[in-house]
Every structure is written in structure tokens, then in C-alpha cells.
Amino acid sequence: MRKTKILTMELQKESLNVLYALVLVEETIHSLRRIRENECEIDAQIEASIQFSSRYGTEAEEEFNRYHRPRKIPRRQDENPISASLIPFRAFYRKAVIEVLDSLITEYNENLKQCLEKIKPLADFVRPPLQSLDVQKMNEISSLFPPSIKVNAECLHAEFEIFRTVVEKSNDPCKTAEDFCQQAHFNKSIFPNVYKTSLLLL
């Protein structure tokens, strides 16, 4: 869970761009899956919660026993009433943690899929090394802008082809999306539509 907290902090950075944010969300999903598939990880989360609550004067097991009526394993699973055991504290919360993790993984996956589908043209635009793109792809990028910002697809296409050639032949080619944004900012007076697209990414 510590890794998940670190990823959350990364998502709050001012320098974050959309593509990197999606990478961090994907890593968060992998982290949650790892916890979901490892019983020791789940038990560690439960133990951390017990310690956290005890710091504030709450005994988790006592609270559990107070508000949860003990339930016995059904007879059909255990015909011997002497050996029938009560559902324990950790088993109850292990099940609850798994339900929460399953819900989060499903929701994050769906959100990630929708975002990736929507911004794929933008990802193609800034992915190093910069590649030539057709006008249709520029139309798709133009459609991502809010109504208040008009970007002509053909102008963007012409600007990008020149920008791409200049940057890739320079001594400082784009290696990351951040490099692309810095180059676009530096040349914003020459390539205003490319610059607007970099702002959209950010």
C-alpha cells in the first residue's frame, strides 16, 4: 500500500502530464492486484488498520465483537457442532478488503480504458521519437480541445511536420513528453498550434 501512496503523491505533482498520469494509474492497478492476490499483503493491511485505530484509543477486535453478531459455519459445511467455529475477525475483514480491492480495480480499469481511447491521438502526437501524422489524426486531436479554443487541423499538421523535423535534427531531440512540451514552449511564437496542443497534454 506504501507504493500506492507514493503513486498518489506523484499524481498530485504540478509537472504531471496526462500520459504520465495514466501510466501512474496503471501502476496503481498493478499494485492493487498484487495486494489482492497475496493473502499476506491483505493481512498486512488489516494489521496496519488495527494499529492505526489503537493509536486513537479504539480496539478493533472489541468493536468488531460489539457490532457483529458471531456467525457459525453452516451445518452443511461442518456437520459436527462441536468443531463448528465462529467466523473470526480477520476472516471477516479479509473478505471486506477483497471486495473493496475488486471494486477499485474494476473502476480504475474502466476509467483507464476510456481515457486511453480518448487521448490516443494526443499520445501518438507527442510520443518520441516524433513521427509524421496525417491530417485525419490532426482532426482527432483538434476535437479534444474545448470549444473556446479553435485549432485548425491542417495548420496543426503543417506546423507539426516542420516542428518535428527541426526538433529531431537538433542536438536536443525529444526523449519524453516533457521534452516535447519544453520544446513547444520555447518555440511557441513559431508553432502556436503545437504549443496549444502541449498545453492540452499538461
Distance between the termini: 27 Å
In the residues, how many domains can be counted? 2
Q: What is the strand content?
A: under 5%
Average residue-wise pLDDT: 82
Major sheet, described briefly?
none
**Helical stretch tally:** 9
Give an overview in words.
There is one protein chain. The protein folds into two domains: 2-121, no CATH class; 127-201, no CATH class. It is 67% helix and 0% strand. The protein is built from nine helices and no strands. Helix 1 (2-11) runs antiparallel to helix 2 and helix 3 crosses helix 5 (89-126). The protein is elongated and about 70 Å long. It starts with a helix and ends with a helix.
Secondary-structure topology with pairs:
Layout: H1 2-11, H2 18-36, H3 39-55, H4 60-67, H5 89-126, H6 135-142, H7 153-168, H8 177-186, H9 192-201
Helix pairs in contact: 1-2, 2-5, 3-5, 5-6, 6-7, 8-9
Features:
single chain; 202 residues; mainly alpha; 67% helix; 0% strand; elongated
Q: What is shown here, in short?
A:
The protein is mainly α. The chain has helices at residues 2-11, 18-36, 39-55, 60-67, 89-126, 135-142, 153-168, 177-186, 192-201.
